[in-house]
Amino acid sequence: MIGGAAAVGAAGTAALLTAGQDTTPAAPAAAPAAGPPAHRALKPSAYRLEPLTGYGPPRAAAHGRTLVRHEPLLRVSGRGRTMVLTFDDGPDPRYTPDILRTLREHDVRAMFFVCGEMAVDNKDLLTEMTDDGHVVGNHTWSHPLLTRLTRSEIRSQMERTSKVVEDACGEPPVWFRAPYGAWNRTAFQLGAELGMEPLAWTVDTLDWMAPGARTIADRVERGAAPGVVVLSHDAGGDRSQSVRALRDYLPELLDSGYHITVPTRHYT
């Protein structure tokens, strides 16, 4: 059964971004207001960390294109029952092709936040993602805890990954996600300098804990609500359960009237 409200993830206060239309992301808002929750909200995973900066309205970057935010975007706004599926840590040739195949079978677009060290040897999968209309985002080079790195180290993690994505996809990524959900001021600033918006998640499937495909699917279905961003993984361990879960919950979401899409960017 598809739930009526989203489980809020570890990133705390939510912000809106637009899906399927070219408008500016809205100002930060409270947690998703999709009605009273039908199920108890999922707890964030043990290794997902709270943002380490104060919240506030974004300010324009020096080049006037990408906003420097003080919190990651958490959910999407759009017409009807819009949701976004995201997959982190890949690409992994053992699991990513099956995920791409399932998405293709249902004519669905998703987001893949890739790690450079995985992507550099699997550029064909990045190209396949782009050819299928998916969005490829930056998840750093080696998945470090950014809050423990220097500014130059964070820049290197982001720039090297963006270069791999650009080589494979024809253009650099315009979205990034901090490993472990650990954001700080430097990450937001450098992301904006590289033309990227920060995107977190609303529902954490906790698939990295390998709880079983049915449990993963249940978490997505119970957390389903307009505006939800779902976090899953296509690498970083045995992701066979994540692959099987997608086959279960994706048709359920579509049959329940959800429109699975990807966000669009609007530059100032």
What does this structure look like?
Strand 2 (59-60) and strand 3 form a beta hairpin. The longest helix is centred in the middle third of the chain and has 19 residues, at 151-169. It contains seven helices and twelve strands. Strands 5, 6, 7, 10, 11 and 12 form a six-stranded parallel sheet that branches. It is α/β, with parallel strands linked by helices and 268 residues long. It starts with 15 loop residues before the first strand and ends in an 8-residue tail after the last strand. Helix 1 runs parallel beside helix 7, helix 3 crosses helix 4 and helix 6 (213-223) packs parallel to helix 7. The radius of gyration is 17 Å and the shape is globular.
Task: Provide a concise account of the structure shown.
It is built from 7 helices and 12 strands.
Relevant terms:
single chain, 268 residues, alpha/beta, 6-stranded parallel sheet, two-stranded parallel ribbon, 14% strand, globular
Through-space gap between termini:
41 Å
Question: Structural class of the secondary structure composition?
Answer: alpha/beta
**What letter string, H or E per element, gives the SSE order?**
EEEEEHEHHEHEHEEHEHE
- Classify the beta-strand content into a percent band: 5-15%
Proportion in helices = 25-40%
Give me the secondary-structure topology.
Layout: E1 16-18, E2 59-60, E3 67-68, E4 75-77, E5 82-88, H1 96-105, E6 111-114, H2 116-119, H3 123-131, E7 135-138, H4 151-169, E8 175-176, H5 185-193, E9 197-198, E10 203-204, H6 213-223, E11 229-233, H7 240-255, E12 259-260
Parallel strand pairs: 1-4, 5-6, 5-11, 5-12, 6-7, 8-9, 10-11
Antiparallel strand pairs: 2-3
